[in-house]
Every structure is written in C-alpha cells, then in structure tokens.
Amino acid sequence: MMSNHIKLMQGNEACVEGAIAAGMRFFAGYPITPSTEIAEISAQRLPRVGGKFIQMEDEIGSMAAVIGASLTGLKAMTATSGPGFSLKQENIGYAAIAEVPCVIINVQRGGPSTGLPTSPAQGDIMQAKWGTHGDHPVIALSPSSVRETFDLTIKAFNYAEKYRVPVIMLMDEVIGHMREKVEIPNREDLEVIDRKKPTSGLVDYKPYRIEDGELVPPMAEYGGEYRFHVTGLVHDETGFPSNTPKVAESLIKRLIKKIDDNKKDIFLYEEYKLEDAEIALISFGSTARSAKSAVDMARAEGIKVGLFRPITIWPFLDTEIEQLAKKVNKIITVEMNLGQYAIEVERKACKYAHVDKYGKLNGELITPDEILKKIKEV
Amino acid sequence: MSNQYEIRLSGAGGQGLILAGIILAEAAIKDGKNAVQTQSYGPEARGGASKSEVIISNKEINYPKVRKCDLLLALTQKACDEYIDSLKKDGILIVDNSVEVKRKDIKKFKLPVIETANEKLKVPMVANIVALGAICKASSIVTKDSLENAILNRVPRGTEDINKTAFEKGLNLINN
C-alpha cells in the first residue's frame, strides 16, 4: 500500500508544497512556461491556508508586490523563467539593499530572450549573481530532484528570513516538469526559520540598527506598531537616504559580509564516488543526474570518476572547489550552457587541476553517454 | 540498469499522452516500484508533436529521460517514424492501426486505438486510456489493478465509467 506521504509529484508542485510548509502566505507572479504550475498551484493552495495569490500585470510588478508583502511580515515568493527573470532584476536589487526577505523561483529555459519556452537550460547562472546592478548579496540554490525541490524551497525561505536577502532557486525545465516518486516529510520534522523581530522601544526604534556582533538587523512589519522608512537608496540606520561616503561603504560592505561570514551555513553540496576519483565531474540541477549515471557507466569500465554536485550556486563554493581540485587530476564541468559555472571553477581550481568543460544548449538534457564520451577524451 | 523499464508514449498534442504517462508512473508506484515521468512538447497547446516518457525501476533513477525504450506507443505516423529506431530489439511496439511500420525485429501490436475511442465509445478523449489497457496487456509492467486504480484517481469526476470501459476495451484489443 502507498502511504499518504508517498506520491508521484511534479517538481513545480513540490516547490509550492515546500513554500507553504516554510510558511509562504503570499505569491505574486506573471505565469510563464516552464514555471506556470507554480503560479497555478499557488493560486489553488494559498487561499486554503489563509494566504493570498495575486497575478500581477508583469514580472517587475510581481517582484514589487512580493517585496511589499514581505515588508508587512508575510513570507513571499514569486516564480518565473528567463524572460521574466530579466524583468525582475531591478527590484531584486531593491530587495537586496532594503534587506527584504523574498524567494524568487527561476525555472530555467533556453534563452536569450523568449528562446526555447518548453526546453531546459542552465543559462541564468551568472544572471542570478549579477543580473541586478551594483555589488549586492544573493543566495542561489539548485535542486536535482523533486524531493530536493521541496527541501530547498524551505531552505530558500529560511535563508531569506535569517539573512534578509533575496534567495533565488535555479530550477530548470526538467526538474520543474519531471514527476517522480517522493516521500513528503512530516511537518514537525521540518526546520522552519522566521525573521528576527525588534525588541527595542517604539520611540528610539531604528530599523537598520545593527547590534554588536550581529550583521542582520531585526525586522518589524508594516502595519505593526513600529514605524519605519524603506528605500532603495543608500540609507543609514534610520532607514532614510544618506549620501555620506562612510555610510555608503559600511552599508554595502555589511550586506556582502552578512553572506560571506555565513558561507558555512549556506554552502550545500553532494559528493558522489569521489573518494578515489582521479577525474571529478562538477554538475548541478538536472544535468547532475546525467553526470551521476555517467559516473556509474565510467566506473563500470574501470575509470575512476566521481561527481561533485553544487547545491548552493551562490555564494560560490570557493573553498570546497579548491579542496576538490587538490584531490583530483582533472575536473570536467557539465552544464546546459557554454561554461558559466566553469568560469568560477577555473578561477579556483586551475592552480591545482586541469579544468575542462562540457556544455550544451540545444534544448535537450545532456545525456550520460555524451558525458562518458567527454570523460574518455580528457 | 537491466531492471529498468523505459516507456515512450508518442503522438500529437491533445491526445492525452502526458496524462497517460502520469497514470502509468502512479500505477508503478502503487505496485511499490520507483518511477519517473518526463515530457516534451512544443509551444502550441494541441496539434504539435507530443511525447511523454516513463521509467520504471526497482532502484534509484538518475538520468530521467528515455534512451532506448522497451515499449513504444505511437498514435500517429509522424511519431512512429520519429521514434521507431529508439525501440530496443524485441521491444514492444503499440501503434494505432492507421500507422505503417517496416521494422520486423520487434513485438508489434497494430491496434484500432483511435477507432475504438471514436467509433465504439464515441469519446475521442479516451484514446489514451484505451492505449493504457493495451500497454498493460502487452507488457505486464504494471498490474491491472494498480493501473485501473491510478486511472480512476486521475480522470475527471463523473467520467469514471467511460474511462473504465475504455480501459477494458484496451485490454481486450490484445488476445492472449
């Protein structure tokens, strides 16, 4: 017999279930393939848990609504794909500087522009980090299975709330649309983190005041008893704009530092058969599944290959990649683009190991056979 | 990978192939197996090429797409021509009887799937369920009970009877 917790579930559906389990009570979006099911299922599920769903006029409007909802104290999310992700960028920067927790799901498809609407790609790796202008913090995660989509959506909310940053989930069409057998954990077994609220008096309340030893200010909600100002301009601890060089530098540096100093907490990855590996594949999202199959195929032929699977894409797994490069002779990055993550890997690994890359962007998932062929080439 | 069974359902958009794939995968899970279902389709809602793939296994399934398939369903000539080479030797081919097939090294079932739905049941929409009946009989990859259960769980309320009949008709298209 099938238990109630075991079912066939789609990646996009698991994303919504994870979000609701994490406490999402607001979704604003503008539906786009291959992320549409996330909006559709959110529209069905949210009203039943006392939440709100709104279909906005466009993507940047959706991002603005998510920021607004989060400022009122709700956990808020939006979902999109490449073209919409481009349009959200300005407000992602707003969320970064104003330190508004929010989750942005990007179910990647072939680009640029409207590109290949129904086909998978992993071409938004760099955009997730640098899509919005200026130095800014961002966290990006990439799931490889339906169950992991559920788990990582919860983590995305947890990181957003804990560090007051926009968190981007880089899914892809394969993971978003794929259905597989999943076991959904019990609610009481899940770790859910909520934002820290202020405890200071109402009169001397400063919304961006940092306590000693802290990097993230506690957050009041609009409509509550604390009154505060929020802006996309550089601001001091009162939340009002400032042009002072000292204020500007310390704000932006703190925004970066709050992520940099917490990499240990944010770094997520999986290692597969790397113990004695001479060659390491580095792959994430759906292509990591192909890479895992390729590792097994190569091992069956006596080639010592393993897989390093980044789950956290940003911040970049710098120390881990360096460690890996010291252990193996060769690294092959495998991704559905022409080598975006590879640039970062090369930067950290080239001193210690030969870095090669395999990329594909014809709208088809990279196959294990293609990876095996590449392994034999290097 | 030998205990992994790969199924490709192909035809035109609107024929319910993605739903058929979902139902097959759910039946496999009811049988206690592991299953992954994927799909590919064009930007148009119906009429374009459509493909749904199911992998059933007793183990973890990594690469989620079908490579060489053990069973191919093709409801249109175009789909058959495109995917016939992906069928393994001695694999099972189920085609609509409107489809011409040259390959001989396979187990071929040429069946009136669309005709059964259109003429006998007068509900073109159930062609996918007729096909599932035929797949069940031809392959035994999922049990009849689990498949029937999965069908009844997925079809719209009020259409259980017609879908049950469609499933029976599909089973009966293949004689033992």
From TrEMBL, chain A:
Residue ranges constituting the Pyruvate:ferredoxin oxidoreductase core domain according to the UniProt record: 277-371
Give every Pyruvate flavodoxin/ferredoxin oxidoreductase pyrimidine binding domain span.
17-244
Q: Entry's InterPro entries?
A: 2-oxoacid_oxidoreductase (IPR052368), PFOR_II (IPR033412), Pyrv_Fd/Flavodoxin_OxRdtase_N (IPR002880), THDP-binding (IPR029061), Transketo_C/PFOR_II (IPR009014)
Q: Which residues cross the membrane?
A: none
What is an example of a GO molecular function annotated in this UniProt entry? oxidoreductase activity
What Pfam families has UniProt attached to this entry? PFOR_II, POR_N
Q: Which SUPFAM superfamilies match?
A: Thiamin diphosphate-binding fold (THDP-binding), TK C-terminal domain-like
Task: Return the protein name.
Answer: 2-oxoglutarate synthase subunit alpha
Keywords assigned by UniProt, alphabetized: Oxidoreductase
| CDD domains reported in the protein's UniProt record | TPP_PYR_PFOR_IOR-alpha_like
Automatic annotation (TrEMBL), chain B:
Q: Which domain of life is it from?
A: Bacteria
Q: Which stretches make up the Pyruvate/ketoisovalerate oxidoreductase catalytic domain?
A: 13-171
The protein in question is named 2-oxoglutarate ferredoxin oxidoreductase subunit gamma
Looking up NCBIfam families in the UniProt record yields: PorC_KorC
Keyword terms of this UniProt record: Oxidoreductase
Coiled-coil residues are: none
Q: Which GO terms describe its molecular function?
A: oxidoreductase activity, acting on the aldehyde or oxo group of donors, iron-sulfur protein as acceptor
